[in-house]
Design brief:
Elements: H1 36-44, H2 48-86, H3 98-108, H4 115-126, H5 135-145, H6 148-163, H7 173-181, H8 183-195
Length: 200
């Protein structure tokens, strides 16, 4: 004879109640998205804190580089301004980055374009001075960073200097006035003079 169990104990039955299994649809794992950063961090031994610190250092380095570049542009602008005041700007040769210096001088003049600086750039570009000696400098830096009037002035000067070798650039001041007031006409005149070159 079996002894009855106390009422506070649960009764054991032979039947097991099991919740039905329901398959939840899952999105297929995309190995290119899941864990690429995690794998890199683990491979480099970076935790989230170390990765954040590395990002802060990179941002700080970028800010310092921008500040150094801005200080260098300001120093070069001071130098060009001093040469302008001495009347010896024509003797200076443009260096890499002087296009940004031109923008700084224009900013300092409250947006007023300084004709003597633009004429200096046009002469340097037309006669291939400074970093405009290399074709890459003429095409890349000049075409991308200088304004259309400066480029038209340079093209017209180059053709006029080719037509009359040895002419004093000071005698060609009309080219600057034409390029400043009518840059498209100056560019068209330069293109016409190029087409009018005698064939060799």
């Amino acid at each position: 004879m079996t002894t009855p169990l106390p009422s506070w104990l649960p009764r054991r039955t032979d039947r097991r109640t099991v919740a039905p299994y329901v398959a939840v649809p899952r999105e297929p794992a995309d190995p290119s998205r899941t864990g690429r950063r995690w794998v890199r961090r683990r491979a480099l031994g970076l935790t989230a804190d170390a990765a954040a610190a590395a990002l802060d250092v990179a941002r700080s380095d970028a800010r310092e580089a921008e500040l150094r570049e801005a200080m260098q542009i300001e120093a070069c602008a001071d130098e060009l301004q001093a040469l302008r005041e001495l009347g010896t700007l024509d003797q200076a040769e443009p260096r890499q980055g002087d296009e940004a210096v031109r923008d700084e001088l224009t900013r300092r003049a409250d947006g007023y374009v300084q004709d003597d600086v633009d004429a200096w750039f046009a002469r340097a570009l037309a006669t291939h001075l400074g970093h405009y000696r290399a074709p890459a400098g003429r095409k890349g830096a000049a075409a991308g960073l200088l304004t259309p009037p400066v480029l038209a002035h340079a093209a017209l000067l180059a053709e006029l200097l080719r037509l009359i070798p040895g002419v004093d650039v000071g005698q060609l001041a009309f080219a600057a006035r034409l390029a400043t007031t009518e840059p498209e006409a100056a560019g068209n005149l330069a293109a016409f003079l190029i087409r009018a070159r005698p064939e060799r």
